[in-house]
Amino acid sequence: MRRFGRTLVTAALAVALVGGTAGWASGDSQAAVTGPPPGTAAWRADLVSGRALPDPATAAPGEVAAFFAGLDDTARRQLLRSHPLVVGNLDGAPLPLRYEANRIAVAATGEARYASLAAPERQILAFDPRGRGQVAEVFGDLEHAEHVSVIVPGSDNDAASYDAQRKPHTGPAGMARALREATGSVSRSGSGSGTGAGTGAAAGTGGATAVIAWIGYTTPVGVGLDAADGRLARAGAARLARFTAGLDAVGAPDPVLFCHSYGSVVCGLAARHTDAADIVAFGSPGMRADTAAGLGSGARVWAARGPSDWIADVPNVEFAGIGHGADPTSAAFGARRVPAGDVVGHTGYFVPGTQSLAAFAAIAKGAAR
């Protein structure tokens, strides 16, 4: 009985923190955007070369890839022109076709907040204008990359704000750019930090790295009850699992998932359903698992937290659906530690020159031990 009482007190403390102390802020409840994109009904009703089209709601990415492999260029472009929003979000469809489809879909919204995403040089891999908007953008050559990383962000990110100029290294697009640049300068001397994620690279681990900024789920606004609850993370986990299956279907390498803040909850729930090579949680409130092994993934699991990150003040509990469980940086959790002693605040992990960014680059290149 006494133990139950302590649990109630701890849960009450968690709710109090969510309400606005220790760095947490109030937030508005969000409706998760799920399911296939707008335009799916018209797509289902269409035919190409007399063939039915794969159902975006049920067809596995491998089935989608096989379908497009059986089409000639004329048929592919017919679908691109008729259904850009579906083609642009169809995991397993050819990458260049998705990029072009999303340029058309973004421009078709006529919304100024999305206009920059339609620039010819941008590689938008997914775009969904519903709600606050979702987007995935590729930095680098995903078709030929030897290594692929996916940035999975936390609260307050959407298609309009994720690449804000005020967040050059802290927003998802800024993180992706910083990581891709850092992977070009990982040392190949073989030196490292011994334990944890050193910056040294083993011989023969070169090759191009592509990085994807993935805002493919409805993130919490602020850090209120949505951020303390797993509802949005569960919806996001299903979308992340399908997205990574789509990468696999087009021949991309097994990805490294870099999971920030609430994004680490998404990654924790998706872990067993992805083929990730590594999962990196940083600034994490918990991953809805007691241990790294409890994630049910074959991936190596890493964790980082800076000394001034306010997430450390959030109780690592889970009670009645509130809170996300064990601290991934604790020894008991069993993740490999990433050095982060010079990280400032909750979002400074990709700032150039930090230990964390150097270690992240080594992990992204498959060079960390």
Keywords:
disordered N terminus; 11 helices; alpha/beta; 369 residues; 31% helix; 10 strands; two-stranded antiparallel sheet; single chain
Structure characterization notes:
It is a single chain. This protein is of the alpha/beta class. 31% of the residues lie in helices and 12% in strands. It has helices at 2-18, 40-45, 61-69, 73-82, 84-88, 95-109, 172-183, 225-228, 231-249, 262-270, 355-364, and strands at residues 47-48, 51-52, 123-128, 134-139, 147-152, 209-215, 256-260, 278-282, 300-304, 336-337. The strands form two sheets. The chain has an eight-stranded mixed sheet with strand order 3-4-6-5-7-8-9-10, sandwiched between helices. The chain starts with a helix and ends in a 5-residue tail after the last helix. Mean pLDDT is 88; it is low at 1-25, 185-196 and 198-206.
Number of helices: 11
Task: Give the % helix.
Answer: 25-40%
Q: Give the helix/strand class.
A: alpha/beta
Distance between the termini: 45 Å
Order of helices and strands: HHEEHHHHEEEHEHHEHEEEH
Strand and helix layout:
Elements: H1 2-18, H2 40-45, E1 47-48, E2 51-52, H3 61-69, H4 73-82, H5 84-88, H6 95-109, E3 123-128, E4 134-139, E5 147-152, H7 172-183, E6 209-215, H8 225-228, H9 231-249, E7 256-260, H10 262-270, E8 278-282, E9 300-304, E10 336-337, H11 355-364
Parallel strand pairs: 5-6, 5-7, 7-8, 8-9, 9-10
Antiparallel strand pairs: 1-2, 3-4, 4-6
Quick recap of the structure?
With 369 residues, the protein is an alpha/beta fold. The protein has helices at residues 2-18, 40-45, 61-69, 73-82, 84-88, 95-109, 172-183, 225-228, 231-249, 262-270, 355-364; strands at residues 47-48, 51-52, 123-128, 134-139, 147-152, 209-215, 256-260, 278-282, 300-304, 336-337.
